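User: Quick one: structure for sequence A, then sequence B.

Assistant: Sequence A:
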Amino acid sequence: MSEYLPKEIRDQLAAARRQGKRKRATRSVHVGDEAFAIIEMSDHGFALDTETAPRLRGLIDIYDGAQHLYQALIMASSEDGDLMRYDFKRNTATARTAPVDFVQSDTRPAGLLSKA
């Protein structure tokens, strides 16, 4: 059906499709002060829109809204139509607490009582 449409309309439909994907994306890549919406994500990498994102490499942070999910080392792998695909060299999930270097007891106190 799309072969019957004029080229201008096909281009506008493709732009609207890309804009819709960008709006649905909740995860984003943060590099310095810039943030780019992740269009697709898998265990091995992710894809960004080629029009908005530069050619990235190195250390990045991945967020889902305001929640920091991963810190990753990436490299650009391929350009797939209007998507730029990146592969993870290292993908580390962030922790909510600092790591400890000792065994924590299960019977530790829940809190301290003050002297009244």
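Sequence B:
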Amino acid sequence: MTGFTLQKAAALSYAGEREWHKGQPYVSSLTGLSAQPDGPAITLRGSAHGQERYSVTVTIDRGQVQDAVCSCPVGGDGRCKHVAALLARAVTAPDDFREFPPLDAALDALDAPALRAVIRRMLSREPDLLSVLLTQPTTQSSAQPTTAQVQPDGAGATSDLPGRIRVAFDLLELPDEDHWHWENDWDGPDFSELTPMLEELQELVAAALTGDHAAQRSALAAIQATLDGCHGLNAQQPDLALDDLSTLVEPARAALLSLLARPLPAELQGAALGTLHESVANLGWPGHEIDGQLDLFTELPAEDRARTVALVRGLHDGETGEYARQRRARTLYALASTGDLSAHENLALARATGDSFMITAALLDSGQPEEATALLAEHPELSLSVVAGLFQDSGALAHLEAFARTRPDPWARRWLFTHLNEQNRRAEAHAVARDALMQLPPAHADAPFWITQLKTVSPDWPADRETLITHWAARPDGPHLPPLVRLLLREQQPERAAKLLHGVPDPVGVLGLDLARQLALQLPAEQALALIIQVAAAHIAGRSRAHYQSAARTLRDAAPLIGRAEAQSAARLLTQEYPTLRALKEELQAAQLL
């Protein structure tokens, strides 16, 4: 009898209703079921059989599902139907799982030769496990003290982390050049072996910051191994975006800056600064990364900061391609916030980046708000809501407000309205909303938005509404009836909306089926009947059962308004007008109108 219980609620919570339902056909056909304790947790294993055999593993701890994985194409996150099937089997028939001895007991029973034999057999069956073996930390040995892993409290020994990092990079698999260009389903390098090593690196750096010289040497070597590995990957596959490497580069460079910000032995200080410079030259230093590391960079000695800025400036000046120069310029511009560049240099670098946002910020920093708004006029793609914070921080918000009043961009007008309303300048916000509606065609997509805003800030909405209706009704620039009718219905004035249609030969064609139906159902019965019949007839003209269903639904929904007898009379009238449409008659009968 197995020593675990799993409640359906816990299993269902993990798998989800959809996968739980999809997994039910697989529950009874699961094979190779086992349960193995591993500390407080229990690992459940089994095989599901679909298009092929899939291995399923689930970890439960104290009655809750902690983790799961399946070898099927979609089972990597443990949320597939095969995992759901294994969970369902564990809920309903836990005794079907053969109990294996605890993992620790099984390992403890093996001496070193037996363990080596087991590992060799595992590697022969799954060669990819070699990376797991070679990247594991070595244990301390009296015969080999130099291979000990440095603990956070600093034992004075050398860590094996740098070597394991280099091995992990060597074992990374990349597609060949031809495969790289045509394969679309490759997700990039698998850094799963490297990720836990970066956590070890953080522990090593923590020990280094206490003054442990061995930890300092090991931490620097591990950082160098990581950055060298990333550079090697990028050199091996130039198409591999640096963004794909940022999950490794950023923590490694942050660790390096942490070391540089503390006193180091002279030889390590020079090597660490050289490593930083080499990483910037080889891998760049994007502004978004600098933003997160700026506090660390400002803690560096002024001389080291100046040398770093000089290096990046030299790299910038040496680039021949425009994109590469802009990339270096963005790095320099980001470093400028540390105060190592003059305002003139800052503006020149911002212009060199080609980034309109950065240039706007630099112009404002140098006290040139007029030039900043002129730049915005040249770059209408730059949203005012994005740069508003820059203008506010520099005390130049009035310049942006004045610019927004002259800019025809609808998003500029929206920003101006929101800005004025937030400042409780309701009269000015009212003028912006009113002017927008006076200038926009009635059918413009922004009209409903501005109606809502005008109503929000209007001191006299009925008067504003009348002004708008009069203005729209007189507009010669396109269809105005639908938005006018929509506005009047919104304002609970359906009879006034109906008057706009007097003399219109085809009101349903002008308004569209949905709006015409909405109007008809809000009119008094004597006015509604004719329009309802027109809407039903327009549906029938579509000549499909779906259209006939809509016609029948229109008459059925109108029955409470016009009376059931009138609705049935209209249904008979339609069948007489379309005597050959058998499906129409069936739908009217289904709606109990015939």
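The longest strand covers residues 41-49. Residues 508-594 form one domain.

User: Thanks, that's what I needed.
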